Amino acid sequence: MAETVADPFFKGNTGRNTRGILRLSILVLIAAAAIASRLFSVIRFESIIHEFDPWFNFRATKYLVSNGFYDFWDWFDDRTWHPLGRVTGGTLYPGLMVTSGAIYHALRALTIPVDIRNICVLLAPGFSGLTAFATYLFTNEMSTSPSAGLLAAAFMGIAPGYISRSVAGSYDNEAIAIFLLVFTFYLWIKAVKLGSAMWGALCALFYGYMVSAWGGYVFITNLIPLHVFVLVCMGRFSPRLYVSYCTWYALGTLASMQIPFVGFLPIRSSEHMSALGVFGLLQLVGFVEFVRSGVPSKQFGTLLRGFVLLVFGISFGGLVLLTVSGVIAPWTGRFYSLWDTGYAKIHIPIIASVSEHQPTAWPAYFFDLNLLIWLFPAGVYLCFQKLADEQVFVVVYSILASYFSGVMVRLMLTLTPIVCVAAALAVSSLLDTYLLLKSPEYPGDSATEAGSNGTPAPSKKAAKQDGLRSMRQPLVGIYTTFSKMSVVSALTSYLLIFVLHCTWVTSNAYSSPSVVLASRMPDGSQHIIDDYREAYQWLRQNTAEDAKIMSWWDYGYQIGGMADRPTLVDNNTWNNTHIATVGKAMSSREEVSYPIMRQHEVDYVLVVFGGLLGYSGDDINKFLWMVRIAEGIWPDEVKERDFFTDRGEYRVDEGATETMKNSLMYKMSYYNYCTLFPPGQCQDRVRGVKLPDVGPTLNTVEEAFTSENWIIRIFKVKDLDNAGRDLASAASFERGNKKKKTIKKRGPKVLRVE
Amino acid sequence: MRPLAIATAVLSFASAAVCVEKGNLTKPLTSKLILPSTFRPAQNFKNANLVHIINLEKSYPKESINVVIENVASTPQDEYFIPFTSQQMATIGGLEVKDRKNPESPLFEVEAFIIYLPLTGTNRCYSDTQFYRIHLPEPLAPKAQQTLGISFYYLSALNPLPATIAQADKQYLVYTLSAYCQSAYDTLKQKTEVKFPSTTVPEYTIVPGTKGSPESPQKQGSKFTYGSYGEVPAGAVEPVKVRYEFTKPLIHVSELERDIEVSHWGGNIAFEERYIMTNRAANLSKQFSRVEWASQTYYNPPSTAVKELRFPLRVGSLEPYFTDVIGNVSTSRFRSNRREANLEIKPRYPVFGGWNYPFRVGWNADLKKYLRKLSGGEGYVLNVPFLEGPKQPEGIEYEHIELRVILPEGAENVQYSTTVPLVSASTSLHRTFMDTTGRTALTLTAINIVDDLRDRELIVTYDYPLLAGFRKPLVIFVTILSLFAAAWGIGSLDVTIKNKRS
């Protein structure tokens, strides 16, 4: 090889430094790319918090920043779940808010005037850069190839499966949790490899941080014990394993118990039992190993058998006893739905009503992971080739995460890191093979490459003389430049297409704030449909400070965050009965709903109606879930069947059932809607049906505000009538109807109080 | 014959006292002087001729009094008093006095007086009658005459009647005035003109005629004239109530915070204004109906709702933004070219009577157009508009304005001048963007301002030494250098526990 000018930079000590700087700059660029690709929504719209849950996190962060940590810890929020309230400080994962609060105060200490909203919006992209770095570290533990880590970091940075939960504005627990997940795993691998208590303790520390940040910490709580269990079953018990696991478990459990929301769950709930069990198992195995070293092998066999039986009997009996007596909490519904995808739909409609709890469709894998999904098995296969402790972890992780990602859409998120790692292992192994492979010395040949010394001519002649024609060429198969070139260029183009795909998916699928809708004007310019904020701002400015708003729970967090008004139910669906009460009020006749609303001191009712604009995520389309959830509590009063026609259709037009037409939700959605159209042309553009010309009448509520495109409609609940009439007859009198002579057979329906 | 005797309303100082503890009518103004209750302005003047013009074309009454005063004392006098009730005193704004004969002359010095009643104990009670004192630049010689042009306006003085109307109804406002101009001196001849926005004035007080004066008012299109009247003693009032159509919003800004940030390094001047806006118009008698509103927008009838606000900014303004508490408001437009820079913003919803809409707007501009370096030395002159709020045909009133001019870090010797009446001014330090000592901030407070004063200038001069400009780069450089040094120092420490020799 010829000496080049650059040579001194790539050899020896300087070479190491050069490579280090290159690696660092590549990582920084990857982090920059990861952050930049998440900013679509900020550039297109504005720096705004997205969707639903992030609004609560944002509100909690503002509370933390303005009231301090201890107030936040003790926060009782009387502006949600009216009249119950919520012990918010004890029922949330504070990691996210505390992180952004810490960043906020750090920047304030440097007198950089940054709005807490911007910190919240940009937290997820910022942490995605850190995730890329953590993936790099994690992958480097798996492979000796220098490119694997960088590739994994690049994949992690732009994989849509992770971007879906970490675009700017998506201020949710996952924003920091995925970084913590990957980093905890990295520390765990490091601890197992070195058998070091320090790394185990660090792992426990980050595990504690993870527990404070996301309910998905249970994934770590189960994956690490599973890894240890598999290793023990493979006969790989070692003091390294014992030290690292015991350190992690003892410290990690203590750390996790510091979070009020988790509290004593780690020793009481079934989800955490595997970690405890493996902890016990390790003690036993350690004890047995100790005994083995001191007892002759013949007696040892008998001793072991008896010992195993005894321990198994005691622990199993104890577990059953504790579960039956209720010391250990039974499995939660969300957990059951992890195993049986049909479970939720039958037993807990509220879990099934959330779209992210649905089972994953096959195309979603390709959509979210693209080429990684077919590189993934190859990467896992490569792990089997050199099956050290850390490779076992990859295998275990892939199997577990693959299963869970098939059960719930949102768990795709936990699969993504390992897919990136495995795919990077596969790609780097391919690249290493084709880029770095030195052509072997041909027997009898001194060298093959041009510019090398020696005389190749006579040996070539000799080769020609014997055997197959293909054998005459000294370099065949993968050694030729052609094969190297073709494989590498194909791989490069795949990777480039992957980048294109990621950009496209991020830009089109995951970058809509959903609070703001965008449409195009006829001249191609962007038109923003901002009805949500219009209505929320109206509520915030022009209603009483403590006016209670009733709406379906989807909008609870947004009302709390943007309109700053107390709500009856919100996205923290902890009280199914309360939600069912709202569902009942929405799906019943006005005579039934009114007492419910009065009892809950409701001042305004907010409904979302997309009929004018063709906005399909409106309340009429969600209505059946309200009915189902209400039916779960009041099967006698609300019946889903009544909302379907005789032919089993869900209709809103002329052919809708009487129950449907009389339900408060239907009436509020279509109230006054038809006056907007010329007679006979009243149309619902979501459901594509023509509506009757005479709209519903409302007696107990009155229209208070309707947003520009009718997406949000707010109704004011009327006060009791001054003259003591019921509101229906009072409204009828106002309209100038004659009083009916017929005597009512029954009084108005009364809310059954239990 | 006449229901009200003129003499009954001679100023009676103790008739009504206002206590601070009871009502919030008298806002404590730093520029106010307190006098004992025995104070009465000396009858040194008489008003030879007086024309009182009340302009009701905007959403606040704008009054101007053109008066020829004559010194009836034997010595030269330079103090002329105008009386107001404490109610008026709380809402009066922008009182300015000029020499009518000489429009080029500077504004006269004006001071507010409160008559203080030393009543029981600690109660700080004020008399119902208070004064403004006009300080004539040159004492008026005995028997000499001078023509004063006094102009002022009241905030929140117009009230809708009926107080609630339907969405598409017309709005009527009520205003109470006096046919005789309130004065601390005898007036020989006077008349009061009321200018209405339209000819629709369904109700007004008719003052019967007396000797020498016909029945008032005389109507002339949308202008009503009361008088003229002959000699009227000091302090006489003749209440007149008018009710007229005004189907426009009454935009009331209860608080405006305006920040002007000067950056020498960036060559940029940044403006930000935070409004707390309310519409004082008649409330809706029924709830808001979107159908009606949507069908109306096609033929755009007059409405009491605020639909749009237009900010004519200085040419060359850049990068405007319009946000409220929950984020950017997308319904804004900015037209900028070489001749104009108009920011047109629409609130998220039409702001009807009784509704609130707080918002924030801001923009940047090239500093060169506002700042000039004084030749020689380190002095700078900054010339910015005091107020750049929206320019609406119906006008806007500002109850409280806090203007903050944030100068670069290290600016000193700050002086300012403006013709807008201020109540307080102070300088403080404002720390931001990694400041070490903090930037010098000049805070000016004004109350009861209307958009008539929109184009008044504020001139700020200050010294900015060259070294102060290099303070921040130096501080950051030294900090980062010491961070590196510390990292290097810590990195080279050996903290391992193992035996050194092995």
UniProtKB/TrEMBL annotation, chain A:
Places the protein is found: Endoplasmic reticulum membrane
GO terms for cellular component: oligosaccharyltransferase complex
Domain Oligosaccharyl transferase STT3 N-terminal residue range list: 23-422
InterPro entries according to UniProt: Oligo_trans_STT3, STT3-PglB_core, STT3_N
Cofactor: Mg(2+); Mn(2+)
Domain of life: Eukaryota
Protein name as catalogued: Dolichyl-diphosphooligosaccharide--protein glycosyltransferase subunit STT3
TrEMBL record, chain B:
Biological processes annotated in GO: protein N-linked glycosylation via asparagine
Keyword Membrane tagged: yes
Gene Ontology molecular function, alphabetical: transferase activity
Record's subunit section: Component of the oligosaccharyltransferase (OST) complex.
Mode of membrane association: Single-pass type I membrane protein
Keywords: Endoplasmic reticulum, Membrane, Signal, Transferase, Transmembrane, Transmembrane helix
Biological source species: Lachnellula hyalina
Protein name as it appears in the record: Dolichyl-diphosphooligosaccharide--protein glycosyltransferase subunit 1
Family membership noted in the UniProt record: Belongs to the OST1 family.
Function: Subunit of the oligosaccharyl transferase (OST) complex that catalyzes the initial transfer of a defined glycan (Glc(3)Man(9)GlcNAc(2) in eukaryotes) from the lipid carrier dolichol-pyrophosphate to an asparagine residue within an Asn-X-Ser/Thr consensus motif in nascent polypeptide chains, the first step in protein N-glycosylation. N-glycosylation occurs cotranslationally and the complex associates with the Sec61 complex at the channel-forming translocon complex that mediates protein translocation across the endoplasmic reticulum (ER). All subunits are required for a maximal enzyme activity.
Domain of life: Eukaryota
Signal peptide per UniProt: 1-19
GO terms for cellular component: oligosaccharyltransferase complex
Membrane spanning stretches: 474-497
InterPro entries: Ribophorin_I (IPR007676)
